[in-house]
Amino acid sequence: MTKFDQLMEMYGEISDIGHASAVLGWDQHVYMPPKGAEARGQQLATLAAISHERFTGDCMGGLLEEVLAGQDGLTEDQRLAVKELKYRRDRAVKLPESLVREMTEAEARAYGIWVEARQAQDFQEFAPQLSVLLKLARQAADCYGYEGTPWDALADDYERGMTAARITEYFAPLRDATVQLLAAIAEKPQVSTGFLRGSWDVDAQREFGLRIARDIGYDLAAGRLDTTAHPFCTNFSRNDVRITTRYDEQKALEAVFGIIHEAGHALYEQGFRAEDERTPLCHTPSLGVHESQSRFWEVRVGRSRAFWKHYLPIMRQYFPGKLEGVSEEAMYRAANAVERGLIRVEGDEVCYNLHIIIRFELEVAMLDGSLPVDQIPEEWNRRYKEYLGVDVPNDAVGCLQDVHWSHGSFGYFPSYTFGNIYGAMVVEKMDGEIGGLSGQVAEGRFAPALQWLRQNIHRAGARWEPLELMRRVTGQEVTAEPLIKYLRAKYSEIYGL
Ligand code: ZN
């Protein structure tokens, strides 16, 4: 066995522990009875500790150094696997164990306090604990090191290579264009969505959603669909990629789009290379790239006019007697109704990025200290009024709505918008190369698009950082222009702007 093979075997075992933890986590959300929570928490913490010890231990460190010293004999893929492993290990080693423990304890406390503060609709109850989390996050940023602002060091966990300054260059034009677009939409007659409410059989929602997931290529012999409060996708190997969704009997399309979204994540993970399994390359390079895959299937395919041309007659078969007088055009417009609201997870395609941009702007200021914690609600509410034109009645539907900060996750939010930015760049490139996406979608032919994504993005795994991956796939530097162009064209047409 070569030193490289030994290193990969050692990593493979860590990857096994990670996947075993994922099984426990999946069960925790899908099947576990409430009383199992405490023991499950311990089991997961034990596995995390074993994995962390092995990953950061001298044994792996020594072997890694030996492999790096003899790098010349490695193939390109082997070299990339070692580079990826080194990056992730260096980052894990930089945080002292005492700080990790302090963060874990503070996060556990913060979650409970956040739940109570949200119930009380009072941010100031949560503020002292958020200050503690921010202090620890700044310490972590100092350990990682950064050139610009502390936020940059933390964001590397989610969108490697991005900095707040760079992100502002993408987000500022997107914000200005979106605010303008929303103001113009508000002046126009609103789209009718009433026919999507009422009573929609939940089993039929599930069957219809699964039918679409299968049609777009989700392999159910290597996956399954379950029900949870918060939808997610998880994998235990590329041959076992599971998704979950939630159902609302009152809403015809929420679960269906939820299933398409998670199936998009699953298609990506089923598309990693078999030979990358149990290596550091069997990953996405960033959450934004992952999100670009789910958003592609949910929005660019699922919320397109072509999609409803194909699926409206099929949907009628799943819901007999429903949708009889509804045209493809009405369905398309209803699936893309724009409504300025307060809640991120309910945001439509136009508003969603503004929810993210607000969080990003506040986070950067919170971490560099220019925004004192007790002023967060004021700044939050001011931006919601300015960007989205809505008044925030209380903190529960304002700055306390997301769980992320109580988990100590700072730097996560922009990945959602990067999903849309990368996605728009990718579709521009793909469209010409596969001979027109919408024509194929209208015929229910999804294989060419999936093949293209497999070839260009899925099979790449973690070989390149997001900026480099986009450069290789599209031949362009990352830019929000394709997204802005797409949003303007689509919504000008729907709303007659
Ligand atoms: Zn997603």
Order of secondary-structure elements: HHHHHHHHHEEEHHHHHHHHHHH
C-alpha end-to-end distance? 66 Å
Bound molecules: zinc ion
Quote the beta fraction: under 5%
Based on CA inertia axes, which overall geometry fits? globular
Arithmetic mean pLDDT: 96
How does the major sheet shape up? Answer: 3 strands, mixed
Give a written overview of the molecule.
63% of the residues lie in helices and 3% in strands. The chain is globular and about 70 Å long. The chain has 497 residues and is mainly α. Helix 8 (164-186) packs antiparallel against helix 14 (352-368). The chain has helices spanning 3-30, 37-56, 58-69, 76-94, 97-120, 123-144, 150-155, 164-186, 202-216, 254-270, 287-301, 305-318, 328-334, 352-368, 376-388, 414-434, 437-442, 447-458, 466-474, 481-495, and strands spanning 223-227, 233-237, 240-245. Strands 1-3-2 form a 3-stranded mixed β-sheet. Strand 2 (233-237) and strand 3 form a beta hairpin. The mean pLDDT is 96. Bound molecules: zinc ion. Zinc ion is lined by residues 261, 265, 291, 294. Zinc ion binds at residues 261, 265, 291, 294.
List keywords for this structure.
497 residues; mainly alpha; three-stranded mixed sheet; 20 helices; 3 strands; globular; binds zinc ion
Itemize the secondary structure elements and their pairings:
Elements: H1 3-30, H2 37-56, H3 58-69, H4 76-94, H5 97-120, H6 123-144, H7 150-155, H8 164-186, H9 202-216, E1 223-227, E2 233-237, E3 240-245, H10 254-270, H11 287-301, H12 305-318, H13 328-334, H14 352-368, H15 376-388, H16 414-434, H17 437-442, H18 447-458, H19 466-474, H20 481-495
Parallel strand pairs: 1-3
Antiparallel strand pairs: 2-3
Helix pairs in contact: 1-2, 1-3, 5-6, 8-14, 8-20, 9-10, 10-11, 10-18, 11-16, 12-13, 14-15, 14-16, 16-20
The chain binds zinc ion (ZN).
